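Listing S7. Sequence submitted for prediction.
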Amino acid sequence: MKYFLDSAITDEIKYALDMYAVDGVTTNPRHVQAAGKPFLTTIREIAEIVKGTDLPVSVEVNPHHTDWREMVAEGKKLAAISPNFVIKLPATEAGFRGLRGLRAEGIRVNLTLVFSGSQALQAMRLGATFVSPFIGWKESSGEETVRFIQEVVAMRDNYGFKTEIIVSAVRNGRQIVEAAIAGADIVTAGLAVFKDSFAHPFTDEGLKRFCSFWDKTEYE
C-alpha cells in the first residue's frame, strides 16, 4: 500500500516526505487555492521538491475544459514542466478521449472524479496510469464504498490492467484500512487525516505510564 499526500502546500509536502515517507502527491484546484500562490508557481515549487526522485505528482488541467483537444494541449504543457507530473483528467466523455490523446504522446494520466465501477473500467482499459475512485463523498451521501473499491480491484485483476488504483477523498484511518484490505494500491489523503490515523489515545496513555515507571527506575 502506497500513501500519497493530497496537498499543494509545499511545507506540508516536505513534512510528509520527511516524517511519513509518502510515495507521491496529488493536487487539485482546491489545494492550489489553499497554497495561496498562482497555479504555475505552485506546481513548479512542488516539482523542485520531488526533483531527482520517481515520486509521481498528479496535476490537474483546467476543469473548465470541455474539449478533449484543450485537455491534451494543456496536459502536454504541464507534463513538460516535470517528469514527475501525472496529468489529472475528469471521468467525462472529453476526459476519456483526452486520456487516449495523452497516452498516445507517452504522457501518464490519472483519471479522477471516478464514482462508479464502469467509469473505472473505461479508464483502465484506455491505459490510465492511475484511476482515482472517490469514497468520502459517496459515503457522506449514504452510499456503500468498500464493495465499490473491491469491484474496481477485481476488474483490474481480472483483465491484467496495469492501472494503479488510488482511493481518494479518504477522511479517516478506518477508510485507509478498508482500502488496504480491498487490495487498492494507493490511498491519498490530507496531512491531518494521516496524522490522526497514526495516533491513538491508548498509545498516548501507555507512553505516559511508561514515562512514570521510567522516572522511578535507576538507569545504571
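Caption to Listing S7: primary sequence and predicted C-alpha cells for the chain studied. The mean pLDDT is 97. The chain has one domain: 2-215.
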